[in-house]
Amino acid sequence: MEKPQVELREDVRSYLEASFLAETEDEDKCRQDFNGLMETLASPPMYTTLRLNTLKLSREEIKDIISEDLRMVYKNRNWDPPQIFLHPSLEDVLVIENRGPKQLKQMEKEVVIDHNCGMAVLRGADIFVQGIIGAPANMMSGDMVSVYIDLDGKCLKGDMQPMGGSKFHVGNGVAQFSRDNIFKTKPTPSGVGILMSEPLYEAPCLSDLRPDLILAQNLPSIICTHVLDPQPGERILDMCAAPGGKTTHIASKMKNKGEVVAIDRSDQKVDKIQANLDRWGLTCVTCHACDALKIPIVPAGGSVNFPEIPTEYFDRVLLDVPCSALGQRPSLKNQITLNSLKSYSGYQRKFIRKAVQLLRPGGVLVYSTCTVTLEENEKQVIWVLENFPDLQLTAQVPHLGSHGRQCSGLSKNLQQLLQMFDPSCDESHDSMAVYDKDTIGFFIAKFTKIKS
Ligand code: SAH
Fold it and tell me: What is the pTM of this model?
């Protein structure tokens, strides 16, 4: 069977392919790699990674608790117990091996969900009532149903007919409510609407596990904060922080001692960061809802008097910029327009300028994206080195991913200082552990501001 590829708009796909082709001598290989990347992005990573709250319990204790909980969850679904292990080189990571794709039977009754809900299902989630768009008139609680993603986005809330158009079968599950209950009862019931007993991919459903002990995070995002290497007592800025996966990691690594400033652009987003901090009992972070690009920068010397921040105030800045997010997996269809795709690099440069102003000499800047474009990754690094002579590209620890990609203006030495997670890349990876490779697409660059 041919593997699905992520479906992009035609002009976006051509633009991306041309951008990769422009940097290579071997066009055939590059085309093949590009197709491989599009395929890989359509499937979920085969590992789930959890970051552990080691301020609360030891990693072994958390592993025991989570393993026991998961064994019960898998047993209740009649699945074989999962492979669970502590990451051999990251002290705060638990790895769970997923399984799939499975052969699926087709049930007579079809439930329709949207793309985002479908992507969560492929990573282990059940389907909440709000995620259900369509269901057959005769669906009763307890019925076994087949669940499909509506790839064209044409199905309307409450649709009853089997769906036309293109669809993708993500698994079978047990309806927890009748159709009338879901669409006609007021208020609409809440909670799980379809329990995914036979998903295409078996992966842990994390919603009932211990949120005070674990946080599901993609491996490269975890590595990103280790590369930042925040120390207890330091001043750290997390400029684009919501929902706060990396913020909680920063505060944990600092043993909750020091000053962390976390910013995102709306109250709603900041509430999510705060909720994550509260779950883990982390108090060394102040969260602010504002446009990070508009922070007034005042002369050096004082302390943070929000929104004003003194110039060169922070020891380290994490700049996990808004990006085209093309590295996210799985993704079967991405509607991003060419204009939007092209707009990111200029937007990201504004954040970089601001970050550099706020970083003290000798301080560390980590720039990261969850995308795969050269414009937002390698070419951004070239621009930084050309425009900020006091920033020096710095080696990363840990370095578990591959290197930056070939790009005119970037020497081999500099390429090696960059960390790229490209799950489809087949070169120089024989030594890489499969759980370090089969991740989302992600990019990390680390800079040090030299003292003049
Ligand atoms: N670091 C986060 C993920 C960040 S995604 C984590 O690890 O959990 C990028 C974030 O940038 C989004 O939450 C988006 O709301 C935020 N963002 C976009 N423009 C912004 C701006 N002008 N100021 C502050 N945050 C912004």
Answer: 0.97
